[in-house]
Design goal:
By secondary structure, the chain is an all-beta fold. It folds into 2 domains: about 130 residues, Immunoglobulin-like; about 240 residues, Jelly Rolls. It has no helices and 28 strands. Strands 5, 7, 8, 9, 11, 17, 18, 19 and 21 form a 9-stranded antiparallel β-sheet that branches. Strands 6-10-20-12-13-15 form a 6-stranded antiparallel β-sheet, with no helix packed on it. It has a 5-stranded mixed β-sheet with strand order 3-27-26-22-23, with no helix packed on it. A hairpin with a 3-residue loop joins strand 24 and strand 25. The relative contact order is 0.24.
């Protein structure tokens, strides 16, 4: 269906170093429709589409996960299966359910991995939503620290457990009874290094949806220039680089192994026997550039308490881009703000205000100086 998209055209604001959108979109935006915006400082994104996108919306509840560009691995798990679920839906649509369990016979785990090398450049950006259900044994007993490995970057030609990798690990400490976790573990096991780990404390919410975002640059050999900015529930918890330099050699082996593959799921370790965990993922977005479009609930990007990733499509030039609207948990009638973030992770000074529609064609006034884009 062709969409009539209306943009009010004003003179571009003078701004240096950050993307600038010409003017607000007039009227409502509707989930799934295509929006074209113009401005300056967007940079050039090619290819336009992200490397991987998994919103799980197209699956049938109760069936095994089957997302384009991903494949599923799982062990014999008697607790549940990696499947489409609406048990903890965010917006009424299916999400991806993963389970981990420690039985008397060992650990059961489930993952969803990219089908080959997808990160071909230095950079990687990952964003998504995750719900924790640590089961009846939460929190762990005193003296125990339960761990679940949520994500890996690892080489496509190697083994994710033996070669250079970045792990995202949530740790729950039975001594504190809290949802504290320690993140960003860097390990190299077969490249002549004994391994490097960098950890910090953040907070995940049990039985709630959590937002995670990673801005990552693997750096170069023999240079302390690897970089990772981790944002959990819209708070920046860790930044490596100038503050905590990480040698790029820990990200890339001299033998040619490089971090270019990505995996999510539920991989347990150090968990008491009989402990089971359910994880639900939604709107997982993976790309090899930091350039992106997001929609937030505040005019200031860093002040948002909700940000939904948007899906670029067809066109991304320095002065124009097109994206598919992903309203996520925004509701009809709610005001939101569109942000274009450039390849250096710079957001604009202010977002552009829009109104979330109900899915019906909105009623609009027709101002002067109207530009019409038909798709």
């Amino acid at each position: 269906m062709k969409k009539l998209i209306l943009l009010f055209v004003l003179l571009p604001a003078l701004c240096y170093g950050v993307p600038v959108i010409d003017a607000p979109v007039i009227g409502s935006i509707v989930d799934g429709e295509s929006i074209t915006i113009t401005g300056s400082g967007f940079g050039i994104k090619n290819p336009v589409a992200p490397k991987r996108w998994a919103d799980f919306n197209g699956g049938t509840v109760g069936e095994l996960l089957d997302e384009d560009g991903w494949y599923i691995t799982y062990s014999a798990n008697t607790y549940c299966w990696p499947e489409y679920s609406v048990n903890e839906t965010r917006d009424g649509t299916p999400v991806g359910q993963f389970c981990g369990e420690r039985s008397l016979d060992g650990y059961d785990f489930q993952t969803m991995r990219t089908d080959g090398a997808i990160i071909t450049d230095q950079k990687c950006f990952v964003k998504g939503k995750i719900w924790f259900d640590w089961g009846t044994n939460y929190p762990p007993p005193p003296g125990e620290i339960s761990k679940v490995k949520l994500m890996y970057w690892y080489p496509s030609t190697g083994n994710y457990s033996d070669d250079p990798e970045v792990q995202l690990v949530a740790e729950f400490d039975g001594n504190t009874g809290s949802g504290n976790n320690r993140w960003a573990r860097y390990e190299v096991l077969d490249c002549g290094f004994s391994g490097e780990r960098t950890q910090y404390t953040a907070t995940f919410n049990n039985h709630q949806w959590n937002d995670f975002q990673f801005v990552f640059d693997k750096g170069s050999l023999d240079t302390p220039d690897a970089y990772l900015l981790t944002t959990i529930n819209y708070n920046d918890f860790f930044q490596s680089g100038d503050t905590y330099p990480i040698n790029g050699s820990h990200m890339e082996c001299s033998g040619g192994l490089t971090l270019n593959r990505f995996m999510i799921g539920a991989y347990l370790s150090n968990v008491p026997a009989g402990h089971t965990v359910k994880l639900y993922y939604d709107d997982v977005y993976v790309d090899d550039t930091w350039a992106r479009v997001e929609m937030g609930d505040n005019i200031s990007y860093t002040s948002c308490n909700n940000r939904e990733i948007q899906i670029p499509r067809d066109t991304w030039t320095d002065g124009q881009l097109t994206f598919t609207v992903n309203v996520g948990t925004f509701t009809p009638g709610q005001h939101a703000y569109i942000f274009v973030i450039d390849a250096d992770n710079n957001p604009p000074d202010e977002g552009v205000r829009v109104t979330v529609g109900s899915g019906q064609e909105p009623t609009m006034s027709y101002p002067e100086n109207l530009q019409v884009n038909v798709e």
